[in-house]
Task: structure prediction
Amino acid sequence: NAGVTQTPKFQVLKTGQSMTLQCAQDMNHEYMSWYRQDPGMGLRLIHYSVGAGITDQGEVPNGYNVSRSTTEDFPLRLLSAAPSQTSVYFCASSFGGQNEKLFFGSGTQLSVL
Amino acid sequence: GIQVEQSPPDLILQEGANSTLRCNFSDSVNNLQWFHQNPWGQLINLFYIPSGTKQNGRLSATTVATERYSLLYISSSQTTDSGVYFCLFNSGGSNYKLTFGKGTLLTVNP
Result:
């Protein structure tokens, strides 16, 4: 049982490049979400999903796209990376929705030059 | 919007001391969790506690929903308790967003 798996762990991009951060969970969780963590700002919600085919915006969605084609996977796409997107990204999931215990992946450290 | 405020922002202790961390929230609570982020960045779920009191070893947590706050108690602190402690809040209903406080940075010195 792997829990919440994020890949890659580290990534360096140049401004304007695109990439996808992968998130997968094997716990049959309906609720999945992406957060970014910046110094002094805590963790801020980017996008979330309450089930396959359903996504919605969080607090800081600009510059990011998501999709949820399966229950297991919730990728985060950066279409044109900017230095302001340098951050640590965390994926999280829970079984029953926003009212349940949340489990986190180990994070992806992204640098945009 | 929903406010989640943690205090104190920073705390320095000597090993063996006790501490209380506080999380205030601005709406009725449906979900309240406490996390510890260790120096390697890993987020560990300590408590799921929308109401009442729970204990796990040297740690305990209490949420007083009617007064809109939660407390995390750390007794006999150890150097391994160092890191950032976050509370996570949701008001339920049609609100699917979970909101973090900005955290308390705890340093336990030997």
